[in-house]
Amino acid sequence: MTKIFTTRRMLHFGDCDISGTAYFPSYLNILNGVNEEFWAHIGFPWHHIIWNERWGTPTVHISCDFSKPSFFGDELHFTLKVTRVGRSSVTVHHDISCEGEKRWASTQVLAASDLDKHTSIVWPEPVKAVLDDWLVREE
């Protein structure tokens, strides 16, 4: 069974430009919040791994495709799929819609990183096992 993480976010006034259209840098900040929620959902909340275990998951690559604008007050629906799990990285794909209409999509690579040495690390075994369990396998 494929595991897909879903969540919703309202576009607030501060997420939009003067015309009420979502501002793309805000999209990236919102996306970061979706990622943070996903990691907590799978058992590795950022506040714990960052402060107690001293590792994190910085973005090392991101691409976005914008289909239609979104506006102040829209509720966006996010789906996150794990599409690749590497030795020290994970690729996630996000589809974002509003009322069933695609608004934008993003593919993002996150890396396991030692926060004190600022170098990549191999995923801790429990994390790797959970990420592998969330991996969407093409049939």
Fraction of residues in H or I helices: 25-40%
Total beta strands: 8
Instruction: Tell me what portion of residues adopts beta-strand conformation.
Output: 35-45%
Mean pLDDT across residues:
96
User: Strand-and-helix sequence, N→C?
Assistant: EHHEEEEEEEH
The rounded Rg comes to: 16 Å
* Number of contiguous helices: 3
Low-confidence regions: none
Beginning-to-end CA distance, first to last residue = 11 Å
Sum this structure up briefly.
About 25% of the residues lie in helices and about 35% in strands. With about 140 residues, it is of the alpha+beta class. The protein has a five-stranded antiparallel β-sheet.
Strands, helices and their partners?
Layout: E1 5-10, H1 24-41, H2 46-53, E2 55-56, E3 59-66, E4 75-85, E5 89-98, E6 101-111, E7 113-114, E8 119-120, H3 125-134
Antiparallel strand pairs: 1-4, 2-7, 3-6, 4-5, 5-6, 7-8
Structure description:
By secondary structure, the protein is an alpha+beta fold. It is built from 3 helices and 8 strands. The mean pLDDT is 96.
Label this structure with key terms:
five-stranded antiparallel beta sheet, alpha+beta, 139 residues, three-stranded antiparallel beta sheet
